[in-house]
Amino acid sequence: MCGRFSSELRDGKPLAADVQIGAIPDSTAGQMDQINQQDSSSASPVIRAAAFAVHVFTSFGAGVALIALLEAVREHWAAMFAWLGAALVIDALDGPIARRLDVARVQPNWSGEVLDLVVDFVTYVFVPAYAITASGLLLPPTAALLGVGIAMSGALYFADRRMKSADNHFRGFPGLWNVAAFYLFLLHPPPAISSLGVVVLIVLTFLPFQVLHPVRVVRLRWLTLSLIAVWAVLAVATLADDFDVGMPVKIGLCAIAVYVVASDAAIRLLRSLKA
């Protein structure tokens, strides 16, 4: 999440959501490649190896996703979410490390942006889509169709240049199907309600409302980060107990989710009422 939607990509380049990039003439592109190659050749072998190690670290998220999928196939759902949580940690760490080591300049032949999107798609969308589809949480006649809808809407969202607003909010439901799946397993609503919820999230992917980015939004960041830390502790406790947790834990997790989803709309509403 942090690497995919940050104001800068893990390579230190601006997101497509922030700028519109036109076609670059072949001659100009060739000159840029030559400059990048010259810049990278000036780096020592140790620095180049360290920069490439960041790409290897990011790609490890894809391996973690495979392990999570294997656990899902065995219906070890808590273990699956634990591995997806590990993927979140990798996603949170690789961007700052890449910017610190100036990976984009040192290793110009490897696209951190593409690598990030590939890994994030399988961890945020594909593996959770399988879990939601195969877990029995949905109405059986609709499960496969909704799983396809999750995968397709997630893929389209990742390609949307408007995925993030100027103030770093997500635009629409941000394809966090790993989180959506976690709440479905936590609350275990009736299959009809679960199916309807998935349909609503697929539709919300394409609607122009804002969802709080838990790290990048400056407003009330201290409160947001504190709540995310509490959420992480509660989520770990939930997985340790295989989702067999009491109502206070469920209420806490749901309250934090409501804050993330609805806080921006609530603040805008209050400001409009005061105006």
Description:
By secondary structure, the protein is mainly alpha-helical. The protein has one domain: Four Helix Bundle (Hemerythrin (Met), subunit A) (Up-down Bundle). 70% of the residues lie in helices and 1% in strands. The chain contains 11 helices and 2 strands; from the N terminus they run αααααααβααβαα. A two-stranded antiparallel ribbon has the order 1-2. α10 packs antiparallel against α11 (247-274). The longest helix is centred in the first third of the chain and has 29 residues, at 45-73. 32% of the residues are buried.
Strand arrangement within the widest β-sheet reads 1-2
Instruction: Provide a count of the helices.
Output: 11
**Mind describing the biggest β-sheet?**
2 strands, antiparallel
- Class by helix and strand content? mainly alpha
Briefly, what CATH class? Mainly Alpha
Cα(first) to Cα(last) distance is 34 Å
The rough form would be described as: globular
The figure for the number of domains is 1
Unreliable parts = 5-9, 11-24
Helix content range: over 70%
- Secondary-structure arrangement, i.e. CATH architecture: Up-down Bundle
- Return the string of H and E elements: HHHHHHHEHHEHH
- Measured by DSSP, the beta-strand proportion falls in under 5%
Mean pLDDT: 83
Task: Tell me the number of strands.
Answer: 2
Give me the CATH fold name.
Answer: Four Helix Bundle (Hemerythrin (Met), subunit A)
Global Rg: 20 Å
